[in-house]
Amino acid sequence: MTGIEQYKSYRDLPSLAGLCGMPQAIKSDWSLDESVTRLKRIHYVLRRIHETLLARIPGEPIYELKTLYSHHAYLCAEQVTSIRRRVSEMREPPLGLDKVPDSGLESTLNEISRCPETVQFLAGVYSVVLPECRAACERLRADAHPVADAPTVRMSKLMTYELTEICQTGGQCIDCLLSDEHKQMVCEWSQHLHANLKASGSIDGTTPHQDCPPEAWYPDEKKSYQHEPERDERFRDPYNAGVNPEAFLYNEQYAAADKTLMIYYKRLRELDVPEVMATILTDLGDAEPWEFHMEMSRQLWDEARHAMMGEVGFAAQNIDWTEIPINFTWSKNLNTQLTPRERHGVLFFIEQSLMPKSGKRYEWEVAAHSGDPLAKLFQDFDWADEVLHAQIGRRWYVPRYKSLKEAMAYGDKCWSQVLSNWQQYKDAGLTEHRNWWPDLYSKSCKQRGIAPDPHTLAFNETYEQQRADLETL
Question: How many CB atoms lie within 10 A of CB 216?
Answer without folding.
Answer: 15
